[in-house]
Design brief:
homodimer; globular; 2 domains; 4-stranded antiparallel β-sheet; Aspartate Aminotransferase, domain 1
């Protein structure tokens, strides 16, 4: 159809993790919280429901102020999005002019390319090295046309991470006119001592945007609340590009309540640590190659076509993610579930491999 | 800041209707449903809340199928947005290339200009004529660069409407390569026999997109659910530009339930008809100029600075909308409320005029 913008006709379709329709099936495909949503969040959601006829607060002031307190920042250092996906689009909309370049690591989250192309930008892909983001190669890919760099920490889908010294050394080399987006969707799960502290990075580097989400750690993927932390002069243009009422009203209330649900968050982290070891042991005993993770999922090399394998798993009640669309046709990504969910996954894996 | 895209630095800030912080105050500023949200919608929202850790259905299949049934269309004729605002952005993203023109009636909803500028398009403004959209002037504004035309029916903020014969005659003159967006956010309130039936327009004209919303009639402004009806070949590129998980999961369930809440909808329409007459009588007895409305709000010419007047009303507990940002500095827009709300507004209006 000749009507369509050229950039749009080149877009690839997004490939989501599959949600099973069978209620007895389990979903370990989208890195959702295996305990469900934070109970405090759900109470707040239900309480807010009765005022759903009222438009949401355009500025999401209350949630931004709570986040500001939590990070020791001011509210004008924060923008809330309809998921961090929307903030990625705000970023290219605010900063990326036609034909400017965005450097993106290969085999990463597909939205970085998507939002770049939507704005007529040019994605410049840099290969991973040993399943890690190769910062030397990213630096070498910078040209006079580079406007954005997208990094993920920890990296999805490999689970590897960029330690603070390596990341800071890289950032100090990046020209100030280039914005570096660090997507920290899984940062709350990172347990290594040298995992970077976002707020410290923002203090040192004026051109950094940190993306966070309520979808994973807080268990609110269905509510679509993400946020970005950056200097106020970076946040201001993002606020300018945002649609006025972009975040659902009860979702704002739920996210704010989730922030304070310490018990749920502790339980989530404890389970993730234990589940990680449970799955590592199983993979070891099966002789499977996998990558140590800083996130709530594990990359496993199954050395056979992953799409067909995951369809077979799905038909037996376990949804996991084939990494074909990420460029790893023989690897899977399994979300760390509860002990029982992990056991069910392991048993099925043994039966089918 | 030199980093920002040129289009973004030219954007105007959105001016929302004010939500009073005082719980005893009433809000007649944003055309929200005075009965609150549809009770069936709220039940569905609460029921869906417990599964908020799961990503929403990317395709919103269930809601689209219900809407398809309601309109006698197929689901591929429908796209769901995070409010119809988001669909407006999908439309410019899918169709409007840099420097192409969008024809927009002056004194209308500000988002049409906003989404046009975000995509580097050029808004071409056409004045209203006797407070009505002037279709002859719109047709005359078409050039070789025109890609989009934005109409609103009924019109916000005047409440006037385009009758079916006038609109159809206009559409039959518009070249097929130009997409005509008809924003029907308030169409459910229209009571005139010659108000167009959207589905009939779609049958006759392949280049029409009809926008609808759950924010007004269904009372779900806080949940952000809008939709568009168009031919499948127009909907397909919109689906391509949309962020994967753009509509909150419980909100999808709530919208679907609201569709079937016949009792709530009848009550809403009955109240709107009665409230309209109640307000007309009051304005008549006060000798105020107003415009007969097809929507759930009334445009009133108060012949004094509206911003200051509305601030004064607000400080006495009634929030209404000054139309200064719409280009009518001496007019207000009042949403039709319940009988009691209307009485409170009328009493205060009498006291302050």
């Amino acid at each position: 159809m000749g009507l369509i913008r050229k950039a749009v006709s080149q877009l690839k379709d997004y490939v989501p993790g599959k949600t099973p329709s069978d209620p007895k099936a389990i979903k370990l495909a989208s890195n959702e919280n295996p305990f469900g949503p934070s109970p405090k969040a759900i109470d707040a959601l239900k309480k807010a429901a009765d005022r759903s006829q009222v438009y949401p607060d355009q500025q999401a002031r209350s949630l931004r102020e709570e986040l500001a307190k939590a990070f020791g920042l001011t509210a004008d250092s924060i923008v809330i999005g309809n998921g961090s996906d929307e903030i990625m689009l705000m970023i290219t909309t605010a900063f990326l002019s036609a034909d400017e370049e965005a450097v993106i690591c290969q085999n990463s989250f597909s939205l970085y390319e998507f939002v770049t192309r939507l704005l007529d930008g040019r994605p410049v892909f840099v290969p991973l090295k040993n399943n890690r983001q190769d910062l030397a190669a990213v630096a070498a890919a910078i040209t006079a046309k580079t406007k954005l760099i997208f990094l993920t920490n920890p990296h999805n889908p490999t689970g590897t991470y960029l330690p603070v010294t390596e990341l800071a050394a890289f950032l100090s080399k990046v020209p100030k006119e280039i914005i570096v987006v660090i997507d920290e969707a899984y940062a709350e799960f990172a347990s290594s001592a040298d995992f970077p502290k976002s707020v410290e990075l923002l203090k040192l580097f004026a051109n950094v945007i940190v993306l966070r989400t309520f979808s994973k750690y807080y268990g609110l993927a269905g509510l679509r609340v993400g946020y970005a932390l950056a200097r106020p002069e970076i946040i201001a243009p993002l606020l300018k590009t945002k649609l006025p009422f972009n975040v659902n009203r009860p979702a704002q209330a739920a996210a704010e309540a989730a922030l304070g649900d310490k018990r749920f968050l502790e339980k989530t982290l404890k389970n993730n640590g234990e589940g990680k070891n449970q799955l590592y042991s199983a993979f070891d005993s099966l002789g499977l190659e996998y990558i140590k993770t800083e996130a709530n999922f594990i990359f496993v090399n199954i050395k056979k076509p992953a799409t067909a394998f995951c369809q077979e798993m799905m038909s037996r009640g376990v949804s996991i993610r084939p990494l074909t669309s990420f460029g790893f046709p023989e690897a899977i990504r399994v979300s760390i579930g509860t002990k029982d969910q992990n056991n069910r996954f392991i048993a099925l894996l043994k039966a089918l491999l």
